[in-house]
Amino acid sequence: MPADALAALDRIGAVMTLRRDERLFLAGDLADCYFKVLKGAIRTCLVLTDGRRHVADFFLPGDLIGLDAAEAYPVAAEAVVETTLIRYSRRKVDALAAADPAIAQRLVEIMRAGLAAARDHMLLLGHMTAIERIASFLLTLSDRAAQERISLPMNRTDIGDYLGLTIETVSRALSQLKIDGMIVQHNRHDLTIVDRAALLGLTRP
Amino acid sequence: MPADALAALDRIGAVMTLRRDERLFLAGDLADCYFKVLKGAIRTCLVLTDGRRHVADFFLPGDLIGLDAAEAYPVAAEAVVETTLIRYSRRKVDALAAADPAIAQRLVEIMRAGLAAARDHMLLLGHMTAIERIASFLLTLSDRAAQERISLPMNRTDIGDYLGLTIETVSRALSQLKIDGMIVQHNRHDLTIVDRAALLGLTRP
DNA sequence: CGCCCATTTGAAAATAATCAATGGAAGTGG
DNA sequence: CCACTTCCATTGATTATTTTCAAATGGGCG
Predict the structure, then answer these.
(1) I want to staple B185 with a disulfide (CB 3.0 to 4.6 A). Which of A184, A190, B56, B191 is the partner?
(2) B3 touches chain A (CB under 8 A)
(3) Which chain B residues touch A70 with a CB distance below 8 Å?
């Protein structure tokens, strides 16, 4: 990651805070802002006609929200825990990007990374078993945090709706990983990976 | 869709043809070209360590291939049937985009559309049953073709690997839709939607 | 201390995968 | 032109995984 070309944006951004479960925007809202997570976590989700909920993505510190929106946000965004963000006017960002190719280039790079992440997630959802999905999810979080100890700010329902599993299956898979000695659970929201190689062995690609 | 800003690109492109199952590029190849499908169909896919294959996407006439690539193509691309494409030098495209904001803007729009399609597909893979996936897939193809008669250039294996199902399940779901009078099958690769409303009723969002 | 809610665990049911066999169309060669 | 072969698709029976339904556990907070 380059010593970020987007740092210039911060001067036009406003810091804001959301409480747990507070909503950032709804699906269909006019998409006139981008957001960057500073602290906490955001989930984007969609409620289906049958009442079930799909979690499209989690956004952790450093992540940009809203780059996929055309006119309107396609999904709702909510705080998983108390979260602080920077809000950028999309109009101003677009103006800066038009004036500075380095910024435009960086935004395209971030979109490409988003496409890559989406591809990986489609592979997970289409071809992995429950335990493989959980293993892959934990490894991704660990890589992001760059440590073996992981914080899971979201609850089991969020994880299930993200991985295409029920909360019971999520719970059972985590229990199995504990039994197999691959992870140690400290409490509901904290665990550490003790056998990364075994966990990696569960993932397919 | 705008009367396409990308038309300017065609002057720097070269037309090429691929036979059925011929390879356009491999995962890991240096990504120095973009491609546009003119006729036929391309699939991008990934072979997993356990030998299973994930089909990431299908590209039909009008679609651009390679926008998600950073340095290297992340997936392989192969012709589903005999296919003609235009190949663009990525270096030249990038130069044109740098010189003409309309082109750059259009490329960003296409990437956004890709992110939207990826989101829809993740919803399908994460939260839909077999018959719902097939119904959704057929409706998407029908919308693209802008008619009720659909051509399925790909075989059942391709469809299964794309929708996260086995070929048997794909076949059974199609049979069920036939029995329920929602589709009529002309042959292996051609069918028409006769009850679009019912098919739509099967999809969740 | 006791309640509440998220999580975990258990048993039954449902969905899709796997294993196995049949059917049928396209292409080949006599 | 027709029989043969091959490949792909369909259908059937069984198995496996995950969901659903149900109950119990346990930690945090008033």
Answers:
(1) B191
(2) no
(3) 109, 112, 116
